[in-house]
Amino acid sequence: MTKTRAVDPSSTEQYTFTSESVTEGHPDKVCDYIADSILDSYLQQDPKSRVACEVLCKEGIAVIAGEITSGGQVDHEAVARQAIRAIGYIDASEPFNADGVQIRQFVSRQSAEIAQGVDLDRNLEHEQGAGDQGIMFGYATDETPELMPLPILLAHRLARGLAEDRRHNYRWLRPDGKTQVSVLYEDNNPVAVTDVIVSPQHSPEASRDSIISYVTESLAPRVMGNWFTKKIQFHVNPTGSFILGGPSADAGVTGRKIIVDSYGGAGRHGGGAFSGKDPSKVDRSGAYFCRFIANQLIKQGMARRAEIQISYAIGEARPLSVRVDTFGTGDTAAAVEFVKGFDFRPAAIIERFKLLRPIYRQTTNYGHFGKPGLPWEE
Asked: DSSP secondary-structure letter at 376?
């Protein structure tokens, strides 16, 4: 029998890699933003809050669920409506709008069994343990100044550009939207953008020709910089129109855009979502720390690409495993020794980045990595 094996495209001389992003009005991102807004509201009142908030949005209903233990008192409904309003869903003629949406809540306290593993005064080892088991990854590459893969970086720029233009220049744009960028690589270096998809939600009166002109003559040249060329194949609203969008048309759920949130598929992902979770949940804080360390390996010149994996057991402070991969682009042995110098305990990560502050709304959209102002990026 002939055996076959998958070919790793990164081992070939030339390949194309594609990543996508979404705007803040995408139904899943609406849910992420509500969840992070609730988290920030609790941390603002009680930095020791334990928050695991999940949100579902569909038509005229938003469901808030999860486990929250806090000394703070937060009006979930008011926070959710303000988040929806900030995104831009204010049209009373649509089923999903800030003032008209029905808010349903299913929230209980955090499990006492989890608390006894996480809380310092109740942990068997008298340390803050991980809030759950799991694996986390962090990735960095020198192909951009932001140390991010180029496809996801450009996809984010296009999506953010849609939102900024909607607020300032182009009144026919609506909150929902998606972008996608394909990049040609040679010897693992990006050399050209081949294809771009931009699907902005729009008002009925906007013509397809005017939308295509906006994307190809204004948005893309402005946000893509030197990566924009006339050779790029643009696909603008490929179905012909995108009038019905947002939660009025599609369901949204927290934590469904984890690849958009991280590296666009270029780096591996442990499967845990970020939004709505306080930093005792290592799905979030552990992934942030892995990204920070991967960045340091690039900045120290130890590798051109780097990926860190850690694993935790619930209630235990120290990771079960730490793995360093430089993909043959650096001194792996030196990188491993360098990484041994970092403290991976949840309490140490939280203290290093001051993660008990209400800083999470700014992480929700356009990626949790590669953006200025985030402590794990500095």
From this structure: G
The CATH code belonging to domain 134-144+257-377 is 3.30.300.10
DSSP 292-326: HHHHHHHHTTS-SEEEEEEEE-BT-SS-SEEEEE-
**Torsion angles phi and psi, residue 268, rounded to 5:** -75, 165
CB 20 within 8 A of CB 179: yes
Question: How distant, in Å, are the alpha carbons of 33, 157, 337 from that of 21?
Answer: 15, 9, 35
Of 369, 135, 131, which Cα lies nearest the Cα of 270? 135
Q: Render pLDDT for 17-62 as a digit per residue (tens, 0 to 9).
A: 999 999 999 999 999 999 999 999 999 999 999 999 999 999 999 9
Delimit the domains of the chain by residue range.
9-23+150-243, 27-118, 134-144+257-377
Catalytic annotation on 281?
yes
27-118 and 134-144+257-377 in the same fold: yes
Tokens of 137: 């990854």
Tell me whether residue 195 is one of the annotated catalytic residues: no
Nearest to 260 by CA among 356, 148, 112, 164: 148
Q: What is the CATH number of domain 9-23+150-243?
A: 3.30.300.10
Residue of 32, 146, 165, 283 marked active site: 283
> Average per-residue pLDDT in the chain?
93
Neighbours of 91 (CB within 10 A): 16
CATH top-level class for 27-118? Answer: alpha beta
Q: What per-residue confidence (pLDDT) applies to 358?
A: 98
User: Residue 137's beta-bridge partner residues?
Assistant: 309
pLDDT in tens, 332-360: 999 999 999 999 999 999 999 999 999 99
Q: Is 231 a catalytic residue?
A: no
257 catalytic? Reply is: yes
Percentage of residues in the chain with pLDDT exceeding 90?
A: 89
Identify the active-site residue in 17, 20, 26, 344: 26
User: Does residue 233 register a pLDDT over 80?
Assistant: yes
Global confidence as pTM: 0.93
